[in-house]
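User: Some background: our group keeps a shared notebook of sequences we're curious about, and every so often someone picks one and asks for a predicted structure to add to the entry. Today it's my turn. The entry only has the sequence so far, pasted here. Could you supply the structure so I can complete it?
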Amino acid sequence: MNNQAHIVELLMGHGANPNQADQKGQTPRDFASNLIMPILEAVVPQPSPQGPGGMTPGAVPAMAIAPGHNPYGAPPPSYAPPAYSSDFAYGSNPYPIGNIYPSLAGAPVVAATVVENDMGVVLEEGTGEVEESSSKDKKDKKDKKDKEKKEKKEKKKEEKAGKNIKDANGKSIKLPLLLWVDDKEPEKGLYKESKKHAHVMHFKTTKEAIEFVEGAPDLKSLGGDQMRVMENNVRMEGGVKNFNAGKNLVKELREKEMKCPVMIFCGDLTYVKPIMEEFADVIGTTNAAEAKTFVTNF
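Assistant: Of course. Here's the predicted structure to add to the notebook entry:
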């Protein structure tokens, strides 16, 4: 308890003996710091309370600070010290057993509870103020972490919404954006599900999709977390079945520096694999589950 003068003074008030030696013959004086030694030196032995016929059973020898002596010197300006043991009549207990005595304000010491056991009067540390402080610190850290997480999420959301990209008519385009290019009506289940996760725009031909992209050149700045393209591979375009529709769209998008990922969802990947090999970020699939992940996992 070096440098915890108030705890040492509290022990003295309960009769702790600074001359009590341990098994090695060492006493508290052998371990006392410069701050604690004056308190121990100021202690004078007092006779123990006695009942008829000698020592009262269970009584603890008492020690007291010499009257008029202040071992602390000038008290710190922020600390009003408690009454010294010498201010109380001998035999009285200024620190009742079982009470909790908090630490000095701001001092890096633990709070303590006065208890009595086989060794006499001691301080049981680690109760009271420290636990409350520790619990509060944990709560503060958790609140701070939750706040930072929320702010990060909001910032990411704002960044997505903050890209004020407009189409050819000057109308703002909502993000994230999914361009769905298919000459047939999209599968209702998958198409409907995708609308829960992105702003979906449906085009029936490659020409319609490219005209939209040309009217909004800022779309090329968007990555896969903000824009994607879903298409089929063979489409009726201009009254003719175009077997290269899938590749034509990918080619034109890349020529316009559009880096967004493209998925070609069809029933046969034979003609899709060469497209995947030629262009980056092109995915071919016949699997509805993979298609669902692509259009919902922005």
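Suggested note for the entry: The helical segments are 5-13, 37-41, 129-162, 188-194, 206-214, 245-255, 273-278, 288-296. Residues 205 and 225 are 24 Å apart (CA to CA).
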